[in-house]
Amino acid sequence: MEGRRFNNNRNGNFNSAPREMHKAICSECKQECEVPFKPTEGKGVKCRDCFSKDRPPRNNFGGRSNSFGGRNDNRRNNNFNDRPREMHKATCAGCKQECEVPFKPTEGRDVFCRDCFKNKN
User: Fold this and answer.
1) Structure pTM?
2) Does the residue 59 lie in any domain?
3) Is residue 49 part of a domain?
4) What are phi and psi of 73, to 5 degrees?
5) pLDDT tens-digit profile of 5-23?
6) Cβ–Cβ < 8 Å for 69, 61
7) What is the average pLDDT across 30-57?
8) What is the domain range of residue 108?
9) N or C terminus: fewer CB in 10 A for the chain?
10) Is 7 in a helix, a strand, or coil?
């Protein structure tokens, strides 16, 4: 693993230098491993295999859910999101059709319907 580069930002760019690796003992399989951070004494460390085994599977949206706006669906479980989302009427800047959006449109700023927004990006 030494010399391996790790993704360090949201843009998908890689660091220019390899990240410093530190030796550790996996708290699950008890094998020696290397981790990209300095282990804290008294806290368990997992090797790549054990960490991946316990991690929920990723979806195809870069870690985001498939909900409108790319927000995590778990956010909807908060108290302020228990009520139905208030929708606002707007005219799509792309297809000029009337649509509903989950935010109050700001005058002078373009608003796109779901289809035009999807095709725009």
Assistant:
1) 0.36
2) no
3) yes
4) -60, -25
5) 444 444 455 556 778 888 9
6) no
7) 86
8) 85-121
9) C
10) strand
Q: What are phi and psi of 62, to 5 degrees?
A: 65, 35
CA atoms within 13 A of residue 64's CA, in its CB half-sphere: 9
Give the C-alpha distances (Å, rounded to integers) separating 99 from 14, 33, 69, 93, 110. 40, 54, 15, 10, 13
Name the amino acid, one letter, at 4.
R
Helices (H) and strands (E) in the chain, counts: 2, 4
Amino acid at 45: V
Task: Please tell me whether residue 35 adopts helix, strand or coil conformation.
Answer: strand
Handedness of CA 29, 34, 35, 38 (dihedral sign): positive
Instruction: Classify residue 64 by its DSSP letter.
Output: -
Inside any domain, residue 121: yes
Cβ neighbours, 10 Å, residue 113: 20
**Intra-chain end-to-end CA distance of the chain, in Å:** 36
Beta strands in 7-117 (DSSP E): 22-25, 32-35, 88-91, 98-101
Number of residues written out for the chain: 121
